[in-house]
Amino acid sequence: MIVRALLDILFPPLCHLCRAPIPGAEKLHLCPACLARAKPIGSPLCTVCGVPFATEGGIDHRCGDCIVSPPPYEGARAAYLFEGPVQELVHRFKYGHKAHLRRPLALLAAERLSSFVAESASDLIIPVPLHRSRLRERGFNQAILMGELLARRWRIPLHRATLGRVRATAPQVGLTSAQRRENIRGAFAVPSPAAVAGRRVLLLDDVFTTGSTIAECALVLRKAGAAAVHAATVARTP
Ligand SMILES: [Zn+2]
Ligand SMILES: [Zn+2]
């Protein structure tokens, strides 16, 4: 520990984003300036899909969309808005092949979502799967990499292969929310329903955009007999 402290003084860790040295850095390795630009999501928000409301103050309640058509999951929460430093971290992590960035992302999620995850009383964590063609081009599944760290932190077992991606889908970018739902339909399957039957599942992904991927996963898991499905993501598009 003394050696470590000395090393930190001589060679302070650098911020993952701007490379500024951070003396006395905690595990996160983001400098105060970068961290200050990140926007955590807090109340008031929708108790189901977790969309933050623009109003100042006020209590959490169901949003109009969740009242009109309740999603197939019990609750979804994201730690931060998908913009600024969080968006940059996710992009570098996924498209820049910087697998080590799973650590700051997992830490950001762990810090903000621990009480939601505890209240969900989930029995297992299921990372949203990638189709093998996407996996080949990226080299890793970002949700599994973060899930490995978060499973340890939250003390919930990680199930890497319980939910499978059976169909490759076109990228969701640029599609309307109805097109996204159509695009993702039938993309997932649970090969052994006994693994989820009667159990409470926590889905994990990096970004919640319209929620169509999370909703489709939740639907398939519920059909396989899951007792409840919650979803946690690091970020959510504003
Ligand atoms: Zn920085
Ligand atoms: Zn909602």
Layout of secondary structure:
Elements: H1 2-10, H2 32-37, H3 64-68, E1 75-81, H4 84-95, H5 102-120, E2 124-127, H6 132-138, H7 142-154, E3 164-165, H8 177-184, E4 188-189, E5 200-208, H9 212-223, E6 228-236
Parallel strand pairs: 1-6, 2-5, 5-6
Antiparallel strand pairs: 3-4
Helix pairs in contact: 5-7
Residues 15, 17-18, 20, 30-31, 33-34 line the site of one zinc ion.
Description of the molecule:
By secondary structure, the protein is of the alpha/beta class. The chain has one domain: Rossmann fold, CATH 3.40.50. The protein contains nine helices and six strands. It has helices spanning 2-10, 32-37, 64-68, 84-95, 102-120, 132-138, 142-154, 177-184, 212-223; strands at 75-81, 124-127, 164-165, 188-189, 200-208, 228-236. The strands form two sheets. The protein has a four-stranded parallel β-sheet. Strands 3-4 form a two-stranded antiparallel ribbon. α9 links the parallel β5 (200-208) and β6. α5 (102-120) packs across α7. It is globular. The model has no long low-confidence stretch (mean pLDDT 94). The chain binds zinc ion (2 copies). One zinc ion binds at residues 15, 17-18, 20, 30-31, 33-34. Belongs to the ComF/GntX family. It comes from Geobacter sulfurreducens (strain ATCC 51573 / DSM 12127 / PCA). Residues 6-66 form the Double zinc ribbon domain. Residues 184-236 form the Phosphoribosyltransferase domain. This is Amidophosphoribosyltransferase, putative.
